[in-house]
Structure formats: structure tokens, C-alpha cells
Design brief:
The protein has 4 helices and no strands.
Length: about 80
């Protein structure tokens, strides 16, 4: 039981950072010319809260699963905003 709980906790810690937005992501978006992304709230409903995603953030998580990617890639947001037009 203890091993399972410890393993689950360690797995959660290992996966959590990959699902969080970072300032380098915002910078990369700007470098790619994605002007709609201005800060963390472009994908998150509340700043510094990985659990509260808005429509764009939920789309990114869906894309991550669909592409079987280890982490989200900001470049995907070009597709998201192209579909929104």
C-alpha cells in the first residue's frame, strides 16, 4: 500500500510540470507571431492555477493527448486561432 501511494505521488510530481504554462511559453508564442497569447491567462482561467483552464487551455490538453505528446507545444495554438476565425 505504501509503495503504491509513494509511486502515485512521485508520478504526479513528474507529470505535473509538463502540464503547466511557463513564461518561456508566452515568449515562444510571441516569437511565433501568435499575438493572441499575451500571458498565462490566454489558456488559464486564473493565473498560476493549472487546474482552471479556459477553452484554449482545454483545447491544448486535448491536442497533447491526441498527438501523444509529452508536453504541450505553443505552436499548436496557431491551429486553434485559425479555426476560431
Amino acid at each position: 500500500m505504501r509503495r503504491t501511494t509513494l509511486f502515485t505521488a512521485l508520478l504526479a510530481l513528474a507529470v505535473a510540470p509538463a502540464a503547466q504554462a511557463t513564461m518561456p511559453m508566452v515568449k515562444k508564442a510571441k516569437d511565433l507571431g501568435i499575438t493572441q497569447i499575451e500571458n498565462c491567462k490566454s489558456c488559464h482561467a486564473e493565473k498560476n492555477t493549472k487546474d482552471s483552464l479556459n477553452e484554449a487551455g482545454k483545447w491544448m490538453i486535448e491536442q497533447k493527448a491526441a498527438r501523444k505528446a509529452a508536453e504541450c507545444d505553443v505552436a499548436w495554438m496557431k491551429e486553434y486561432y485559425a479555426k476560431k476565425k
